[in-house]
Design goal:
The chain is of the alpha/beta class. It has 13 helices and 14 strands. Helices cover 30% and strands 15% of the residues. α5 packs across α13 and α8 packs parallel to α9. It is globular and about 70 Å long.
């Protein structure tokens, strides 16, 4: 496994030791930046994470372990993370990673914090906040990877022809001749009432997909306050919105990448965003179904996964109903989100029944969120309550979901668990991809 790309969340000295033994290492100047770099970098074959786990890094490590081998140097990591028995030597670490140890490596111990006996850091070679890739020998760094949704540079100067919103129902999950459904990488997160956690779950699904190696975009199709811009903390920060399409922007120009979100003062996320209209854009063509279809038509063929935070579904008539009809008619999957309220369950059932009769995909699934912890139903009961074929998760109400989101931690372990099961169910971004 020599010359494999190894992710390191730990001190620079550990990265240098592994690089000297033939590994290419992707890391960062601090723990958070290193975790972000490892998550977003394609081709990582294994990850070494130092230091004690907390709730955020435990969820991160569990998500990473769905696609790569994760090795923890301290006790307390989730069961999916390999924790070798202490004391750990450099030779043990090389054996675990498939690297060739050097003579004497058996006598060099690696602490739970990643520090290597007798090896000091050589200074940070990167600017603050930048990603560091440490290469063995004189190897050259690979060109920067361009996300799939950002490719085709010509798109930035081209305005696509508007797409008419016309539902195209079909019982087949593919086009004639067996071709995949054109919007098979689109997931619509919908509900029959507001306040059930659509935006938070959309962000969790996107983060989990990104951790599995997919270029992911979240589209806010629910105009109004409290949406994706609020969650990302970029309201009024001048980022592009979907409404800019109506003013002549191209679909590629309304996608805000994670670096763009961060530069605007937003939270760190591993996915791109198409924000909903600003308040002064919310009326008229800027929030029409046709505008959203234009954006989704561009992204469906480029991004690995497009997660759409849908407006509340009150029925097939109205902007939300028109967009849903068009999307399911082109093969998009539907995730119906409900809660313990009668309105949430009844609305979810109506939505699921309607989508199932029109979808070109069998992927109409559900999640019950914010349920009373006492007497929590199983997923079988959840499927019957929402009238879906498969319920990915039944989640109890948990105050820390809101508290952590307020701190910028968007993927609570509960939401991450549900997100992983949703992705497994629709067959997108499976382990090992």
């Amino acid at each position: 496994m020599s010359d494999e790309l190894i992710g390191v969340v730990g001190p620079e000295s550990l990265s240098r030791v592994l690089a000297e033994r033939g590994a290419r290492v992707v890391t960062g100047p601090d723990r958070e930046a290193a975790a972000k770099a490892v998550r977003e970098r394609g081709g990582v074959s294994a990850v070494v994470v130092a230091g004690p786990p907390d709730a955020v890094f435990s969820a991160w490590a569990e998500a990473m372990s769905a696609r790569v081998d994760v090795l923890g140097l301290a006790p307390g990591w989730p069961g999916s993370v390999r924790v070798p028995p202490a004391p750990v030597s450099v030779e043990d670490l090389c054996d675990a990673l498939g690297l060739a140890p050097r003579p004497g490596d058996g006598a060099l111990s690696v602490g739970s914090d990643g520090a290597v006996d007798g090896v000091s850091g050589v200074g940070d070679t990167s600017a603050a906040g930048a990603v560091t890739e440490v290469l063995p020998g004189d190897a050259q760094a690979a060109p920067a990877r361009v996300p799939t949704w950002a490719r085709d540079a010509a798109d930035a100067n081209r305005v696509e022809t508007p797409v008419e919103v016309v539902p195209k129902p079909s019982a087949s999950p593919s086009d004639a001749g067996g071709a995949p459904a054109p919007w098979g990488t689109v997931l619509l997160v919908a509900s029959g009432r507001g306040g059930v956690g659509r935006t938070a779950l959309s962000a969790a699904v996107a983060s989990t997909a990104a951790a599995r190696g997919l270029d992911t975009v979240v589209v806010d199709a629910n105009p109004g306050p409290g949406g994706l811009a609020h969650l990302l903390r970029v309201e009024g920060r001048g980022l592009p919105t979907v409404a800019d399409l109506a003013a002549g922007a191209s679909p590629a120009q309304v996608v805000a990448g994670p670096e763009q979100v961060r530069a605007a003062g937003g939270v760190r996320v591993p996915w791109a965003a198409v924000l909903g209209p600003d308040p002064d854009q919310a009326a008229g063509a800027g929030a029409s179904p046709e505008i959203y279809v234009q954006a989704l038509a561009h992204l469906a063929g480029r991004a690995g996964l497009v997660v759409v935070d849908m407006p509340v579904w009150w029925g097939p008539v109205g902007p939300g109903g028109q967009l849903l009809a068009h999307a399911v008619g082109r093969g998009a999957a539907v995730l119906v989100l409900g809660d313990a309220s009668r309105e949430g369950l009844d609305g979810g059932r109506r939505l699921a029944e309607w989508a199932r009769t029109r979808a070109r995909t069998t992927h109409v699934l559900g999640v019950l969120n914010r349920m009373p912890a006492r007497g929590l139903p199983g997923v079988g009961e959840g499927a019957r309550a929402l009238d879906v074929d498969f319920c990915a998760a039944v989640l109890p109400y948990e105050e820390t979901v809101v508290l952590r989101a307020a701190r910028g931690d968007l993927v609570h372990p509960l939401l991450g668990l549900a997100a992983g099961r949703v992705l497994d169910a629709i067959g997108v971004g499976g382990a090992g991809r």
